[in-house]
Fold:
Amino acid sequence: MSKRSDLMTKGPERAPHRSLLRAEGFTDWEMERPMIGIANSFNEIIPGHMHLDKLVEAVKAGIYAAGGTPVVFNTIGVCDGIAMNHVGMKYSLPSRELIADSLEIMATSHPFDGLVLVASCDKIIPGMLIAAARLNIPSIFLSGGPMLPGKVRGKDTGLDKVFEAVGRFKSGAISEQELTEIECTACPGAGSCSGMFTANTMSNLAEAMGMALPFRRRCLPNGSGWPNKPDTRPSNWSMQTLSPETL
Structure:
């Protein structure tokens, strides 16, 4: 049974390709297995992405356990909340196309047999889904999960309330101290902003489209804002789809 990754691993003509893979530590056994690319959008500037490296480790373990060889690569991401209200917002939407292009480039230059797409926020999710549609290889999306709401004087709050608080401060409705209190408690930890904004909407749409496993978006985060348990189901699914009909 031929695989897409055979283009870089099979036959005497691919000896140079295998030589480069061996430089990274890949063995004959690993190169014979389906090679699954993991598009990791971890970074330390987007709250919804700062924990994705932990989820990616679980995805790698799941792929390995299911009979595949995981290969992690990275892509960029823009935090719309941090990019807002300055010239940076002009770069948010174009980043979606850069992300789609970068995934298409990576998965074509290095012909993976399937993809696991790991993201949480705004333009990164649609960028990855666009790339999956272009590539037309077995792919599944894994969300990093939602952020817990903050608490201000006993009431749930989120990033949207911080923007509202700026207006209330400007109008004299609240003091600077009250504004600072909201600022410091609205976003308590990792995860996509608590609310049905772009990030959580796109994650739910990915599930409705069949590109994410059911109920992932409804997994409750724990006290840190991270999902309670790393989800290895997408890894297993990515391997199950690699039937003779899909390769």
